[in-house]
Specification:
4-stranded antiparallel β-sheet; homodimer; alpha+beta; 91 residues
């Protein structure tokens, strides 16, 4: 993806920030059970999409970071999956 | 815990390293399913002990980091839980 495409896709994501070749968002939860349920649902989506984010899991928050190692940077898959995780969180 | 106690407990842990007020270990797995099963088993232990590590989850690895926020540093609970996660991994 070129910078123009990346900027365009970023516009359509809420709460995600770009850190070089990675896009990142932190989700917050009421308790550990909610956090872990989210982690597992995100893992399921990752499995289905065959695209695995880095997850940083604390007691009541989870940071999701997408990049495409095989592309050496951001790809459409990162933005598609970010939107799926947002939809999951909002559901 | 004082430095002598910490050093003593570190001796009995394999593969853990100390990073200031945190102890850290990275576990590696054959695939994403194994990784996620480990994450969930570790979450269960964390729930039972009421002591929650930070987990950094990738495709085939998980880094576990323990500290005791309420104690402002390392506590016996960190070392007890680290040993439990090691036992889980070895089981």
């Amino acid at each position: 993806m070129n910078e123009t495409e990346i900027a365009e896709r970023m516009k359509h994501l809420e709460g995600w920030s770009r850190d070089d070749e990675t896009i990142v968002k932190t989700y917050r939860f009421a308790n550990y059970h909610e956090t872990m349920a989210f982690v597992n649902a995100t893992a399921w989506i990752s499995h289905r999409a065959d695209h695995h984010p880095d997850l940083t899991v604390g007691y009541n928050q989870c940071t999701v970071a997408y990049t495409t190692h095989s592309a050496g940077g951001l790809s459409r898959k990162d933005f598609d999956c970010a939107a799926k995780v947002d939809a999951l969180f909002a559901s």
